[in-house]
Amino acid sequence: xxxxxxxxxxxxxxxxxxxxxxxxxxxxxxxxxxxxxxxxxxxxxxxxxxxxxxxxxxxxxxxxxxxxxxxxxxxxxxxxxxxxxxxxxxxxxxxxxxxxxxxxxxxxxxxxxxxxxxxxxxxxxxxxxxxxxxxxxxxxxxxxxxxxxxxxxxxxxxxxxxxxxxxxxxxxxxxxxxxxxxxxxxxxxxxxxxxxxxxxxxxxxxxxxxxxxxxxxxxxxxxxxxxxxxxxxxxxxxxxxxxxxxxxxxxxxxxxxxxxxxxxxxxxxxxxxxxxxxxxxxxxxxxxxxxxxxxxxxxxxxxxxxxxxxxxxxxxxxxxxxxxxxxxxxxxxxxxxxxxxxxxxxxxxxxxxxxxxxxxxxxxxxxxxxxxxxxxxxxxxxxxxxxxxxxxxxxxxxxxxxxxxxxxxxxxxxxxxxxxxxxxxxxxxxxxxxxxxxxxxxxxxxxxxxxxxxxxxxxxxxxxxxxxxxxxxxxxxxxxxxxxxxxxxxx
Length: 491
What we know:
There is one protein chain. The chain is an alpha+beta fold. Helices cover 50% and strands 21% of the residues. It has helices at residues 2-80, 83-89, 96-110, 140-146, 187-201, 240-249, 292-331, 342-355, 369-376, 378-395, 419-434, 465-481; strands at 113-118, 123-126, 131-132, 152-157, 163-171, 177-186, 204-208, 214-217, 260-262, 268-274, 279-285, 358-366, 401-406, 409-415, 438-439, 446-447, 451-459, 487-489. Strands 3-2-1-6-5-4 form a six-stranded antiparallel β-sheet. The chain has a five-stranded antiparallel β-sheet with strand order 8-7-11-10-9, with helices on both faces. Strands 13-14-12-17-18 form a five-stranded mixed β-sheet, sandwiched between helices. A hairpin with a 5-residue loop joins strand 5 (163-171) and strand 6. Helix 1 packs antiparallel against helix 7, helix 9 (369-376) packs across helix 10 and helix 10 (378-395) crosses helix 11. The longest helix is centred in the first third of the chain and has 79 residues, at 2-80.
């Protein structure tokens, strides 16, 4: 009897505890693997996205700069070789309004300022109808560029509103110099073009001429005088990142041996020659951590990672809570009868003691249960235990507790119930059980059995469950001595 009843309850908490530990171990392992994999792929994705964005940005940037430089160069070259302009410049008399109309048409067509300066007529006119003589201070560039070799020049002028000028010498059919014509772009136009790259990636652009002088940059509007005033000149060697490259990479001073460089500070330096101007463009890309695009990607991936972790954490808590409730339920539930076991009864007693003034405890014991096991076998004995458990459970209130105390014994906790009231309840149960025909699973026959009750009732203050059990056990012993199948109140 003890083997098929008590031993199961004894090993159940241990078995469930081991199962719970395995569950937690599996969950912990899955959590660690998930965090590692998510972190790895998140960081890998961020780095790959950053590299792809940098690559995708540099290529169109090269194209943009090339087009923005070549377009005005081509327009200026076309104007200088326009036979109409050459013939008109060599006339003895010119109509300045006619030239202004021509320049306005060019400016409108290409969205840039156009100008012409004619030596024979000592005049300079632009598409904004601004006129001046060649000996004025504002036209000092004319004489400076005239004496230089070559026909194409790029200069920065107009102190009030700096522009990048593309100057082309005009020569007649004999190859003689007769003036200049060309176009000019507002430096703010370049700044607006590069603003998107600067905001997204933090790129800085530097344009360097053949003398390694900074002619144009994206982070500062160059002063028109800086091109020909020595004290305002900024050279490539003055830039900190260039000094770092020379010192650490042992590159030549012109940086002509490589296309891309990396400084100790993590700056990525790219360069592209602009052959038409004999210039070079340098793209200075800051480290990924300092770029807006990087942070957008990183924050997006981090938020996704954070949401996944939160969801996984909530799911983990839910699973642990569920497993814990299942563990408690299994650990404090008798496997055979599905009634609370002795451990749960102790806990419920303590809970009842906190909220009630009086308690009645009933011990029930199946009469001659050993004979049932010996006569019909343990399987039939198990069936009897299950059927009687159902009878005990069905008769009680929601606030009452019934559990298996051990073997064929059951215990009932009846809060705020007198012994006389409990006697009425258990007598009804006793009679119902006595009337049951218990089936014999191995045959088609049946048999009956009875049950005895011992009742103990007292105020619950300063009492423990052992006091109640002791009293109920004495009453139960008396019921057994009196012939079984009866209920006795402990006095």
